[in-house]
Amino acid sequence: MTKQTHAFQAEVKQILHLVTHSLYSNKEIFLRELVSNASDACDKLRFEALDNAALWEDAPNLEVRVSFDEAARTLTISDNGIGMSAEEAAAHLGTIAKSGTREFMAKLEGDQKKDAQLIGQFGVGFYSGFIVADKITVETRRAGLAADQGVRWTSEGTGEYEIETITKAGRGTDVILHLREGEEEFLKTWRVKSTISKYSDHISLPILMKKETWDAEAAKQVVTDEWEPVNKASALWSRSKSEITQEQYEEFYKQISHDTEAPLAYTHNRVEGRSEYTQLLYIPAKAPFDLWNRDKRGGVKLYVKRVFIMDDAEALMPVYLRFVKGVIDSADLPLNVSRELLQESRDVRAIREGSTKRVLGMLESLANSEDEAERAKYAAFWKDFGQVLKEGIGEDHANQERLAKLFRFASTHADEGVSLADYVSRMKEGQEAVYYITADSLAAAKHSPQLEIFRKKGIEVLLLVDRVDEWMLSHLYEFEGKPLQSVAKGAIDLGKLQDEEEKKKAEEVAESLKPLLDKLKESLKDRAKDVRVTTRLVDSPACIVVEEGDVSGHLARLLKQAGQ
Ligand code: ADP
Ligand code: MG
């Protein structure tokens, strides 16, 4: 193929413009992104080679080499991973396949800091090379293709790129950055090495650089021809806890989640028994922009004996814990396991159950901590993720009770943070049910006339104002043996709380008002099932209630909004 010039997809052009014009803080993350792509490419080779050993060619040792050429002002990141064909290079380095690009740009444009960390979050890490380079050359050959089927991709990061066929003996990819004026720091061993150990220490492949020695004659450090590893090259989760610092745990989290903030909590365990696996799971501090997409891929990577198998293996986590990030490394699953097989595997079920328990355990220890700061962390978590966690009530019956204890609500007692246990501890003598009201907003709930009698009697009522609450209530009927009861349904039965005298008076009044009630019933007959005298109101003259067992007024409104 002779040289061909292609235009970037419009989104890529916009990204490149932003990258080159506004990302300066943390510019060194380009190295993390390129090393992570190299490592991904090696993972992919290892995986494809399970079915096709010929892909190994004669280079069985996967590795990443980082080198620079001072005279040419280039920094090169090479890997002997899967490589790219010409079509793949055009597709992966010229278009953006993933959704979320628009959110990414909005975030970048709005963010005063213009933090380059953001870039990895949206699957556009490759382009971060243009922060420090005014030209990038990629020389690559897909594993399995002939040496003369190599590809050279070149771009100056403006509107277009060029592709031509080359001969490349070794499989894999060289990314050659032609550094901009002023970026000479990346032509120094110490600078590159320290950046790699900061961001990429846990990468499970060796990352090699040329060794430097002191040349006494020249009185300076000189680069030799000998390669040495600059990272620890053991998968972080396979090391023992005592060897891992909090910073390393956090850096690993940022790498796999592309989050810029440290995680809220993490758990790292080796599980033995019927099913053997290692889990390293993180709870993010903030909700990602696509949390509400239930089809969104999960955040847990599956490895089998340290071999990467797949990203976002949904079967490893219930949908309502889709915000959890991390790694699960199984000792039992076959290396060629497919997504379909995962769904049916008993080992996977055991892993999912075990991991769910761990995550709930992390949340419980925050929520119930003696330490106020930890409890505040839980409150912050609940703000961002509470609605998602509520989905678990219907999805995960086995853990219903544990989940219900983690829930926090508003009530007539406090605007937030009320747990069902708090509520039960404040129940009045003789009170048998947990009372709640559902509404569109806290203000609407608080001003509902249906609360009057409860206020008068000093009985707490939960104010449920999240969209998922109605749905949650269709799965959660009771807490610790106390039924959950709507204050807006049927004739409320206050049980022992009702005083006998009031009841009798109401009956008498009802009797005497019968002619009026009949008239009202007649004139409202198409719109109301019944008209009753009530003791539930204190100040308001009338209120609407729904029959026990009917959809609540609030749910009816939600369904109507949804066009049903
Ligand atoms: P992401 O890594 O999130 O997919 P990037 O912008 O970092 O996004 O990379 C885009 C794509 O380019 C990768 O998904 C991969 O298909 C391809 N790619 C990048 N670097 C390499 C490499 N060193 N070897 C093989 N493919 C690569
Ligand atoms: Mg990447």
UniProtKB/TrEMBL annotation:
Q: Which SMART domains match?
A: HATPase_c
An annotated GO cellular component of this protein is: cytoplasm
Chain segments carrying region A = 1-339
State where it is primarily located: cytoplasm
Q: Does the keyword Transport apply?
A: no
Please report the stretch or stretches of sequence annotated as the Histidine kinase/HSP90-like ATPase domain: 26-183
Xref: SUPFAM superfamilies: ATPase domain of HSP90 chaperone/DNA topoisomerase II/histidine kinase, HSP90 C-terminal domain, Ribosomal protein S5 domain 2-like
Cytoplasm listed as a keyword: yes
| Superkingdom field | Bacteria
Give the UniProt subcellular location, in the record's own words.
Cytoplasm
Which positions bind ATP? Answer: 33, 37, 79, 84, 98-100, 121-126, 173, 339
Record Pfam families:
HATPase_c_3 (PF13589), HSP90 (PF00183)
Which keywords annotate this record? ATP-binding, Chaperone, Cytoplasm, Nucleotide-binding, Stress response
Cite the GO molecular-function annotations of the record: ATP binding; ATP hydrolysis activity; ATP-dependent protein folding chaperone; unfolded protein binding
Q: What does this protein do?
A: Molecular chaperone. Has ATPase activity.
- Cited PANTHER family: HEAT SHOCK PROTEIN 90 FAMILY MEMBER (PTHR11528)
Assembly: Homodimer.
Q: Which HAMAP family match?
A: HSP90
Concerning its family, UniProt says: Belongs to the heat shock protein 90 family.
- Protein name in UniProt: Chaperone protein HtpG
